[in-house]
Write a structure and sequence with these properties.
Keywords: Cell membrane, Membrane, Transmembrane, Transmembrane helix. By secondary structure, the protein is mainly alpha-helical. 68% of the residues lie in helices and 3% in strands. A two-stranded antiparallel ribbon has the order 1-2.
Length: 253
């Protein structure tokens, strides 16, 4: 299932984090994000401790800071939204550097930035230490509906197929001297998009027929039975358990 497909977020390694079973890492990452979201936004020190915990995981996984920070750029749209909140939110106002900002908007911006950044960093670390095929096996092990797992598997596989087809079509156009420079070339690009859709649909039909001819009846066979020991579960849940302690202190202090 999605065998042989590597993604750009994955960083090959042999660290203790890489060696954990995928379903333990998925469960731990989900639990950690739930704890972070449940933390009161006023407890700023708690989010600093969460960042330290994630930095410890990155160190154990041997993921360089540059690798992590570069992939955190995916949250830029959310950062832009957070920056606008103090200007558009209503309620009590406060002067900051000569600008009138909403107090509730400032808290909302902090809430989005802190929790969003920690959530994205958790996802990046999970992807950096777990291959796509292992993630799918982990979801299967966690009893996610099989149909959703199959949809995710096919989406990953055909994403690569369509990307390769687009690359070949681009090379074919450029080999014939075509270069899109203005609106008058949109027609050619539109025809290419239509041809890409037809080729992708036909490829899907052929693959489905091949699967049916090999006995496919709506479910994928389990090739690898991934299991985890009690020690591996304990190592994986060290992060969310430590975060839970911080969260409880944030509500009580």
């Amino acid at each position: 299932m999605a065998a042989g497909h590597a993604h750009k977020l994955y960083r090959h390694g042999h660290s203790p984090v890489h060696g954990l079973p995928p379903h333990t890492k998925l469960a731990a990452a989900f639990a950690f994000v739930i704890v972070v979201v449940s933390t009161p936004r006023e407890a700023m020190w708690a989010f600093a401790l969460y960042a330290v915990l994630l930095a410890g995981v990155a160190w154990a996984a041997r993921v360089p800071p540059g690798f992590l920070l570069k992939r955190l750029l995916i949250e830029v749209p959310f950062v832009a939204f957070a920056v606008l909140l103090p200007f558009v939110a209503e309620g009590e106002r406060v002067e900051v550097l000569g600008m009138s900002l909403s107090v509730s908007g400032l808290w909302g911006a902090w809430n989005v930035l802190a929790k969003g950044t920690l959530g994205v960093a958790t996802s990046v670390l999970l992807a950096a230490t777990t291959e796509l095929r292992e993630l799918l096996l982990g979801l299967q092990r966690l009893k996610l509906p099989p149909l959703l797992v199959q949809i995710a598997s096919f989406m990953i596989r055909y994403g690569d197929v369509i990307t390769d087809e687009m690359r070949r079509m681009r090379i074919a156009r450029e080999s014939r001297g075509f270069e899109a420079r203005g609106i008058r070339h949109w027609g050619v690009l539109a025809k290419s998009a239509g041809a890409l859709f037809i080729r992708s649909y036909e490829r899907g039909e052929r693959v489905h027929l091949a699967m049916v001819s090999r006995g496919y009846a709506g479910s994928m066979p389990v090739i690898d039975e991934v299991t985890a020991s009690r020690a591996q579960w304990s190592h994986a849940f060290a992060l969310p358990v430590a975060a839970l302690v911080v969260c409880l202190l944030g509500w009580t202090l």
